[in-house]
């Protein structure tokens, strides 16, 4: 429960509850003294059986607690609540280099990436615009930012692998797509971010580090996912001899982490399909939502009703009466 209240002055009513507790304790002490004065010690248990006394105290405690929580509700408590963003753009940038066919991630890097990416798109609030960029020897916008989830998911399914890895170009292309999104009613640019997944290092185009400043200037953080293991390999046909060679395709974790840190985003690591699914779940629950301070009086009302209800039920059970 939160301890922030919209009307903290009303908490003074808690002193009334404290006063009731003091009166109850005083009455119990006085009652006990009277029992001892007019009853022999041997007869005390029959005059004041232990179980009803315990039951009476428990009923009183639940009632007092219910009143206290109800008083907190009167002060209108507030808490930070996760609410879906109403306007935002998320560009999903996926690596489609040949290294994505490596099978160190079951069944393959690209197959697992497609499944998790589509699940991520489904998890985002419906009001958000989602765009898709794929990158290999170059970067291209596969889907402009849209609220049509089926279009994005269909485009993910159709992604093909090619040579090269252009991470820097992917960031720049994503930024260009974001600038095409209409501004809000207040004339300000809609908040945006980039979620970029790659299993390697930049081999062509704009260097990764050169994409940091443009993203910072645009106010667009890049969230990176370093995908795959350091033991990943692919089979490549050598053009000179026609022979097949096994080529290692490790992920450059440091470069992707630097890109995220430099733009104000976060970096993640995924070495398996389950890891990637977990990362996308975490991203979906954060990038698509804002934390807003909202009144949560209902939480306290529910607790107060439960406490008072339990007190009433025990009163009926012990004494066959409501009070």
Describe the structure.
There is one protein chain. This protein has 323 residues and is of the alpha/beta class. It folds into two domains: 4-80 and 294-319, no CATH class; 86-287, Rossmann fold, CATH 3.40.50.410. The chain has helices spanning 14-38, 41-47, 50-74, 109-123, 149-157, 167-179, 212-218, 253-263, 273-284, 297-319; strands at residues 4-5, 77-84, 89-95, 129-135, 139-146, 192-198, 222-227, 233-237, 244-248, 267-270, 289-295. The strands form three sheets. It has a six-stranded mixed sheet, sandwiched between helices. A three-stranded antiparallel sheet has the order 1-2-11. A two-stranded antiparallel ribbon has the order 8-9.
Features:
10 helices; 11 strands; alpha/beta; 3-stranded antiparallel sheet; 6-stranded mixed sheet; 2 domains; Rossmann fold; elongated; 323 residues; single chain
For the biggest β-sheet, the strand order reads 5-4-3-6-7-10
Order of helices and strands: EHHHEEHEEHHEHEEEHEHEH
Task: Look at the structure and give the mean pLDDT.
Answer: 85
Percent of residues in helices:
40-55%
Total beta strand runs: 11
Number of domains: 2
CATH class of the largest domain: Alpha Beta
The biggest sheet amounts to: 6 strands, mixed
* Secondary-structure content class: alpha/beta
Task: Give the uncertain stretches in residue-range form.
Answer: none
CATH superfamily of the largest domain: von Willebrand factor, type A domain
What is the fold-level CATH name, i.e. the topology of the largest domain?
Answer: Rossmann fold
- So how many helices? 10
């Amino acid at each position: 429960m939160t301890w922030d209240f919209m009307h903290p002055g009303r908490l003074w009513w808690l002193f009334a509850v404290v006063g009731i507790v003091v009166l109850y304790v005083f009455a119990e002490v006085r009652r006990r003294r009277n029992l001892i004065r007019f009853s022999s010690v041997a007869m005390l248990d029959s005059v004041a059986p232990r179980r009803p006394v315990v039951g009476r105290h428990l009923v009183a405690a639940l009632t007092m607690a219910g009143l206290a929580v109800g008083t907190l509700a009167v002060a209108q408590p507030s808490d930070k609540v996760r609410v879906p963003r109403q306007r935002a753009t998320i560009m999903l940038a996926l690596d489609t280099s040949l290294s994505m066919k490596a099978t160190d991630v079951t069944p393959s890097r690209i197959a697992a990436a497609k499944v998790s990416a589509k699940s991520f798109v489904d998890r985002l609030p419906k009001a958000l615009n989602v765009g898709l960029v794929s990158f290999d020897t170059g970067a291209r916008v596969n889907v402009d930012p849209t609220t049509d989830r089926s279009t994005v998911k269909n485009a993910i399914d159709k992604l093909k692998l090619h040579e090269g890895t252009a991470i820097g170009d992917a960031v720049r292309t994503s930024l260009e797509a974001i600038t095409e999104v209409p501004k809000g009613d207040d004339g300000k640019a809609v908040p945006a971010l980039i979620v970029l997944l790659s299993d390697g290092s930049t081999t062509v185009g704009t260097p990764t580090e050169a994409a940091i400043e443009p993203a910072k200037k645009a106010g667009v953080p890049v969230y990176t996912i370093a995908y795959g293991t350091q033991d990943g390999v692919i089979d490549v046909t050598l053009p000179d001899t026609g022979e097949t060679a096994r080529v290692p395709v490790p992920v450059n974790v440091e470069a992707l982490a630097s890109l995220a840190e430099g733009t104000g985003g976060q970096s993640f690591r995924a070495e398996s399909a389950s890891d990637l699914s977990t990362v996308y779940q975490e991203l979906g629950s954060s990038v698509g939502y804002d934390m807003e301070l909202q009144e949560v009086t209902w939480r306290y009302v529910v607790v107060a009703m439960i406490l008072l209800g339990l007190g009433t039920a025990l009163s009926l059970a012990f004494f066959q009466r409501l009070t």
